[in-house]
């Protein structure tokens, strides 16, 4: 699953050119500009499990929120192909908030992404960064306080600079569809791909990107019907 790095000039990766207006990405950018409160933090993904060893994986991806929103199947496809998926803690927070208070399209896509994470939560090829890890200092990377972009990118930077000796560097990618975040990744020499580019790389490597169809996921936290008080006759 080799590919171009953030440090090379390549038309297939390079700098992500902004596409037509995307209301979901705009909503995510607005969400990132506001501080997440304690009540917004997800509580359901704090699970312990043995993670896969480097010898058991074909690569590793660190996912951004917008990539998971646009291509939620990317999680299950990667796990099926024995590719380690790392989810930064701020991504969980943003998905949780979009699911609870996002507009209809964002709500549905965040719900689908959370369903995929929940379904695969016990896999050895899925790792959730916890809140304390998200705040740990990383040499060579300075983070602006309460900046989710920086916190998410730092997770990718940390994994890339702390790779074990038996891990193949060319198979570690930060997956983001956010133009601004891709520029920050480029500045820190973090290799990145868009979700579509990543899936194309899997296909070029002879890996399958198809999944068995399944029923539409149920609401994780279904909204409660309003209680209408009885009217006097």
From TrEMBL:
Q: Where is this region: Disordered?
A: 212-233
Q: Where is the composition biased (Pro residues)?
A: 223-233
Q: Give the record's GO CC terms.
A: nucleus
Every copy of the PIN domain together lies at 59-183
**Organism superkingdom:** Eukaryota
- Pfam families noted in UniProt: PIN_4
PANTHER family listed in its UniProt record: TRANSCRIPTIONAL PROTEIN SWT1
Protein name per its UniProtKB record: PIN domain-containing protein
Q: Provide the species name.
A: Cylicostephanus goldi (Nematode worm)
